[in-house]
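Q: Two folds, back to back.
A: First:
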Amino acid sequence: MTVTSADVARHAGLSRATVSQVLNGHAHRFAVETAERVLKAAKELDYEPSTAGRMLRTGLSDFVIALVPNTTFGGNLQDIFDTVTEQLAKRGLTLVLRLSTQSPSSLDRILAGMKPRAVLSLQPFTDQEKSILAERGVPSFDTSTSGNLNYSIGRIQAEHLVAQGYQRIAFAHLRDNRLDPYGDDRENAVKDVCREAGLPAPMVFGLGVDAAEAGAALDLLKPGVGVACYNDDIAITLLNAANRRGWSVPADIGLVGMDNTPLSQVTNPRLTTIGYDLAAVAQLSVAAALAALGEGEVPAAADIELHLIAGDSA
């Protein structure tokens, strides 16, 4: 049964008008003892304020919208946003995940209908999106790290492969119908590392999580190549194809993934991959939300540290 402010008033033995004002942030108008009675009664009844009512009173909801690029993510994203959801809930805010679209009007409809307290994005806002957010007066903040984080991922992968003695390097994109806001920076980093090491320019190709495509990729790569992979899914796809073909891993092909997924640690051989502190990413997102609401300083993306998880695939 939904607990209403009227229930709180009866439990506290106070008028509905008094309870309503205290619950709506006007406790300073009443004696401390009165306000405490209201809050104590609300807590005992597990009272949750009505979002619809708040929207009518203030023109704002308690929603914080996170715009997620319509690209591929592993299970790490769920782990991150589970934490963000919990942390924002402690502050009376509700996190809503929304896939980004290429239509600015879609964002405008969301803002008009949900009246969020703030909007976060995992990639930079476009100029049109910035204009819409400004017109609607909605605080916003993008939690992306420009190209720096993704460039660093590509460098770590390529530098490890070079250090292991591979004279030919490749970069494997994830081929998918969805957007890829991250792959280009990683590819550019691999190209830079090859140039700095005096190696030929890397072969760049894309494949899906598909056995036939992985086999065709091996035909092009030839033995003796090290591959920096977009994520662990691509690395494992190539690893399975190499095993079926009888290639020795890491002698014939070296593979470095990204994301340190649980599956990467149970492959044969165990995948070399890149990991990062999920808790740090979650705290960055929470801090970004609070900064957008004017309740903290803008967080520094540099707090996210990448580290190579040494396996046996490279």
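A: Second:
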Amino acid sequence: MAWLFDRYRHMFALTGYDYPPHYMLIAQAGQLFFCLFAAGQRVIGHAGDLDARDWLVIVAALVVGAAPSFASVVQFHRPMVALMPVHYIAAVVLFWLLPVHGDVAPLILVLGATMTTAVSDFRRAVAYLALFVAAAIGGVVCGVAEQGWLMVLMVCFGGITGQLMQQQLRAMEAEHREHERQQVVDRAGIAGEVHDVVAHSLSIVLLNVTAARRALESGREPGDVDEAIEALRDAESQGREAMGDVRRTIELLRDDGTPETAQPSLADLDSLIAGFRRAGSTVDYHCALPAGVLSSATELAVYRVVQESLSNASRHAPGRPVTVAVAPSADGGVAVRVANPVGAGVRVPRQPAGLGLSGMASRVTNLGGTFRAGPVDGEWVVDARFAAAADAAAPCPIQEVVRGR
């Protein structure tokens, strides 16, 4: 059975319609059943009256009616959809040469109209359906089709069903493509989270390790060893925290779930700044908190922008002071500005390199804001402005909080 399904998949791939293989199995089983049943009706209905010519007609009808089923299994080139109506109509006409009461042969037309229109574009489907309808009307006119007009309507219904199946297939394919695209977007977002977490944590760890090394190298004051130990403990704590964050993020990637723990927000900026200060960075932090409620996505983006900017400053300009300012913007949104001096010997990050700047830009623009990063008057400045929410377009009162170095 597996090889037959593979054959059906190959045939559908050649026609450009990715139907499930069991669709074809059911349709061909129905086709063979109708042909055999119609032949049996004639053998029984004309018992004792069949001559060699009648037997030849019955056998020819069976062969012609079953030909599309066998052709779909053995052929390796593109299926000839245009010949399908010919096979179905010819088989029914041959059966009509030996009319019987309660004939099921016209049902072959209904099945043929459904199968043909399901693998044809709209214009061809209309043309093929017209052929099947003409055959059914011909049977009515010749008096060989019982309840002929009902049969004509059934043929039309079969053609409409085939087109509906095709539209359903297209809708399912579009849904699958959208699902795959969303998975790519989700994984890119998780990759950005991993980058932000690891970059920040490693920056803190390296700053603490550097401070510990310098303290141990000097070793002149009684408290140098204690400072080194404290720096190493902080580095160890940051490393463990980073491992936990990475582990949780990887679990999200595996399970396609949502985080169980709360994401960082504006309330976590204090601890973020404190971590860099403990590691030896000089950070001048100013924050004006809006009285209105920001979305969790905006608060997370603000946190990540500050986090990544401080990590970049510690890598590219170690030992230089950093100014961080978070405040409402003029249009009622939120503005973030992180600046640190750059001078001779300081490596300036370029926009295309790595995931840091591009990741920050993506976060901000996805929330409808603007992002700029580059040297301004001897400083490397990261300027991110988040647009106001629809219900918070007007500036709102603020509570000024200034936190010095």
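Q: And?
A: Confidence is low (pLDDT under 50) at residues 390-405.
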